[in-house]
Design a protein that fits this description.
InterPro entries: AAA+_ATPase, ABC_transporter-like_ATP-bd, P-loop_NTPase. The protein is built from eleven helices and 14 strands. The protein is α/β, with parallel strands linked by helices. The protein has two domains: 7-224, P-loop containing nucleotide triphosphate hydrolases (Rossmann fold, 3-Layer(aba) Sandwich); 225-324, no CATH class. A hairpin with a 2-residue loop joins strand 9 and strand 10. The chain is globular. The structure holds adenosine-5'-triphosphate.
Amino acid sequence: MTTTAALTIDRLRVVYGSHSALDDVSLQVRPGEILGILGPNGAGKSTLLRAITGKLRPSSGQIFIAGKALSPGKAYQHSIGFTPQFLGLYRHLTGRENLAFFARCTGVSRHQMPARVSQALEEIELTDNADVRVDQLSGGMQRRLHLAATLVSHPSLLVLDEPTAGVDLGVRLSIHDLIRRRAEQGVAVVVVTHELDEAEVLSHRVALLHQGQLKALDEPQALIQETFGNRQLFVVRTVHMLPPALCERLQEMGFRPCSDESSDESSEWWLESDLPLDRLIDHLYRDLGGAREAIAEVSIRRPGLKNVMQQVTGARSDTAVETVS
Ligand SMILES: Nc1ncnc2c1ncn2[C@@H]1O[C@H](COP(=O)(O)OP(=O)(O)OP(=O)(O)O)[C@@H](O)[C@H]1O
């Protein structure tokens, strides 16, 4: 028996003027699956979400929601719930009033509304503060309410743009639980996040976008295994940010900054290598010479999606292992 995909994207192309923002992207999301969409700035993530939610007309290709072709501007015909990145709540209304408003807007009947609103309030543990105005709620409560405003209509496809941006760990974990519970009930979830550690624990599969192209699509652990096999990473932490000459030296040895693509803002560097740790430390000490007191710690770490992303999108350093061997 085949299950109809909750979302099918077929050879999607979006061109802005002469710039190709999405280039021949195809993927499917099954009911109950959480798909993380990852990629550096400008990769095409928002464009993809706008296409899935019918907010833009693709230059070519098609999108199907539960097997039915999506017409741009007519997403309301499908059961899609979209939670944008920035809070869209009525601050002078209470949580309960906000949920009732969003339920009405998305077609929940008067008859169903009280039960739906109560259920959503319970889900986000806001029942006790349901009648407090939004502007008096904590930031974490507002974030959960923002998500609940989408959940209240019981969409079968949930599209989330950075649902945990700017929240603390406790709120983040409770939002993860909310998303997982809906997925367990059969809801398909597409979630854009810049937090690669989050994507690794939350997503069943991840799609890596770079310059509008789908570079990888797989389960997080499978991607890590495909990219790094059983190799481990050496991570060097420095006591402070290094002067440019030392950054260059580390890069010549094949190290990459952990924080982002900008080497002069990183005090952590990683290297994929088969060398034993003691030999690597010898090389480091020899190569950094008098600057070795800048090293605070050398450790071995399991690669993560962050490293996969750097490997897929960054300039590949093929000389890494040879340089220090
Ligand atoms: N309305 C537009 N007109 C012209 N170019 C656009 C438009 N929207 C996005 N772009 C360009 O398309 C590319 C993809 O943009 P998009 O916003 O989808 O990327 P993103 O992955 O969401 O980035 P970010 O993480 O910074 O939000 C970028 O090069 C961007 O400058």
